[in-house]
Amino acid sequence: MEFENKCVLITGSSRGIGKATAAAFLERGARVAINGRTEESVAEAISHLSVGDQLTSAPGDVSTVAGCEAVVKAAIAGLGGIDVLVNGAGVACHATIEDSDEEMWDRTIDVNLKGTFFCTRAALPALRARKGVIVNVASDAGLVGERGLAVYCASKGGVVNMTRAMALDLAPRVRVNCVCPGYVDTDMVRRDYIDRAEDPEATEREVNEAAPMNRMARAEEIAKAILYLASSDAGFITGAALQIDGGSTAGY
């Protein structure tokens, strides 16, 4: 899985899975555009990842069409094109149906689903020019229902099925796949879920026990799967949803 001089845009790459994916591409010779909502978050990530001229900055909020187009434009300007688009920006919300309001719905759908679609649309001319690859970051919650995650499940279920439709629309010139992680040990999971729980220790135990492997995934494990789907080794794979969930969906 070598990506020497390949140009990669990863949305949501200032932290978590996206940042680990950026590091993995960089290790294999790629040039990477880093995206986060603010210039400050992108600059901080670049300072941690910095490897000469392999990095470029593409800040912007992908919850709007204009934001998606600006991010893609900045990436193309900095990289000179796009060979791989990883739609990794995402937000999560743990809430009952009664506690889910319109603001939560809009934010979750806009970032997770709308952002994935319109970043893809904006990048298509560049991707077609290079017979590129798209990898969307979905979730095991896009394959099965989960309690307290109705809005998130709606967004990620949309990403999974949209991936399949995009694969049909864009073949054979552009391949489109998605990864479906279970719980991943990132700051988002810890800060926004575990640490906010009434009993964080018990919640972390429940999270680990959610998968038959009895642990959360490491961000680097998800990154390696993304690189595989983006590589020539996966040249005959399109429209796939790759589960990386420690077995959490195996019984469904």
What's the alpha carbon Rg, rounded to whole Å?
Answer: 17 Å
Q: Please identify the structural class as seen in this structure.
A: alpha/beta
Residues in helix, % = 40-55%
CATH superfamily membership of the largest domain = NAD(P)-binding Rossmann-like Domain
- Order of helical and strand elements: EHEHEHEHEHEHHHE
| Count of strand segments | 7
Number of domains: 2
CATH architecture of the largest domain: 3-Layer(aba) Sandwich
What do these coordinates show?
It is a single chain. This protein has 252 residues and is α/β, with parallel strands linked by helices. Helices cover 46% and strands 13% of the residues. The protein has two domains: 199 residues, NAD(P)-binding Rossmann-like Domain (Rossmann fold, 3-Layer(aba) Sandwich), CATH 3.40.50.720; 32 residues, no CATH class. It is built from eight helices and seven strands; from the N terminus they run βαβαβαβαβαβαααβ. A seven-stranded parallel sheet has the order 3-2-1-4-5-6-7, sandwiched between helices. Helix 4 links the parallel strand 4 and strand 5. Helix 1 crosses helix 8, helix 3 packs parallel to helix 4 and helix 4 packs parallel to helix 5. The protein starts with 6 loop residues before the first strand and ends in an 8-residue tail after the last strand. The model has no long low-confidence stretch (mean pLDDT 95).
List the helices and strands and how they pair.
Blueprint: E1 7-11, H1 16-27, E2 31-34, H2 39-49, E3 55-57, H3 65-79, E4 84-87, H4 102-129, E5 133-137, H5 150-170, E6 175-181, H6 187-194, H7 200-209, H8 219-230, E7 241-244
Parallel strand pairs: 1-2, 1-4, 2-3, 4-5, 5-6, 6-7
Helix pairs in contact: 1-8, 3-4, 4-5
